[in-house]
Specification:
Elements: H1 2-36, H2 41-45, H3 51-68, H4 79-91, E1 108-111, E2 125-126, E3 131-141, E4 146-155, E5 159-160, E6 166-168, E7 177-179, E8 183-185, H5 195-208, E9 213-214, H6 222-225, E10 231-235, H7 251-258, E11 263-269, E12 280-281, H8 288-294, E13 302-303, H9 314-328, E14 332-336, H10 341-354, E15 360-364, H11 375-380, H12 385-398, E16 406-410, H13 416-424, E17 429-432, H14 434-439, H15 462-465, H16 470-495, E18 508-511, E19 517-519, H17 520-528
Parallel strand pairs: 8-17, 9-10, 10-11, 11-14, 14-15, 15-16, 16-17
Antiparallel strand pairs: 1-18, 2-5, 3-4, 6-7, 12-13, 18-19
Amino acid sequence: MGKIRTITKYLPSAIMTTSIATPLIYMAYMYQKDDRQQQHAILRNFPLLGRVRYISEHVGPELRQYLFAEDNEGEPFSRLQFQNVVKAGKYNERLVGFGSDRNFEEEGYFIRNTLFPKLLTEMRIDNTEKTNTYKYVVDNEGLFSRKEHREEAQVDPYFLRDEDAIVLGEKTCRQPFRLKGQVGMSGMSYGALGERAITALSRGLAIAGGTWMNTGEGGISDHHLAGNADLMMQIGPGLFGVRTPAGEFSWEAFREKAAMKQVKAFEIKLAQGAKTRGGHLEGQKVTEEIARIRLIESGKTVNSPNRFEEYDSFPKLFDFIEELREVGGKPVGMKIVVGDIESLEEMVQIMKESNKGPDFITIDGGEGGTGATYQELADSVGLPIMTALPIVDELLREYGIRDRVKLIASGKLITPDKAAIAIAMGADLIHIARGFMISVGCIMAEVCHTNTCPVGVATTDQKLQTGLIVDEKLYRVTNYVTSLRAGLFNVAAAAGVDSPTKLERKHILYKDNQGRISGVENMLEKLKRPVEDE
């Protein structure tokens, strides 16, 4: 008992001494370590104190995103753009109060409204069948907490009518792909995204209906198939999923993929807006499952070529596309980044003369960016979508083959107004990648290539993925798609047309920072002018 009393007597002092001594010992150790290291000048000259700089640098993006950046600031998306996606996915709504936060002094595109907009009853919407989903309802919003609950809901799907549906390969394929919605998921591979994210996307898109899921160049996984969503299989220069062990194209593997009921179309990827180069996947992301799907070596970093080795000219590429279409019986398109307009015109001319080519062309703007790439390529190679899209549309019209080819636009088109502007500029369909990532939980941590995504979206790390609950996130995907489609009809009505498929260049105006306005036609004429006339 005496020993216990003694321990009890001195225990508080011992705890206090330890709590003071331990931090001091640690600080002394770090001081000595910083003073002796030779790598960082700031730490050598200011031991310990210099670490404040590196800590601030490390958490700087989070501080700017949540505390210091204004609502309209931030790249690649502002806080408002991010919140718009979250709101659409979680609450299936796009309502705002007290007016727009857009800076109307800046230059940008605007939708030309009519004085006599279309009534809802005049719109060509197919809402005959409702979509069963879940959405959140806010009960009370306090300073430190938000009380809300999730409830079942039936929402309008906002499908196009059958006669307005977009059809890929209508006159060229044994099995055309008919779409009653204009918005789908852009290419995001399993491996770049984890299995939970891919599964949630697949299941959510399937419930929304009228849409599609682009597999990315990493091949088709069980997770893509999990929801029974319509798939557009992308084939990149690495030929993942349709290659032999030696890395050559396998017609046998292609036939297997083409025979799958869920696969509705194929997309040949020549380039991506974020990376006009081949794909990149860090070895730490290449699990045995991913290696099996792609027919590559597990645990090893993969860099696919920046182009197809065999198809180095348009005639060769088009012959390949024709053979794919004949063997598979399904639409075949190609994904490009626009930069060399002369080469683009050569491509269109060959399409005209040979009567060959893709059923659709996906135009990815230089501002695209889900994949890992190099800074110089992401920042400066390839034209942004709002410049590239009307150029391709105009060339196809000039050569009289626009009716043969559907155009899909991609590049930060994550809200209905942006998508509507792209459709008016010539797009038939819209591809979205990062918007769908946000819908399943992405917080824009910008560590997609490191396998350390804190919310379990862009990672194959099983521990990190535990935070992503598929049964929760899949409905946010459904809500996001239906909300986007509703927004497109909203814009169409304001422009005076009864379907977003009828939006045209005449519905778009561009205002510069001095208040002057111009149409898309004016911008195209300026691009056509010879350099010496400038």
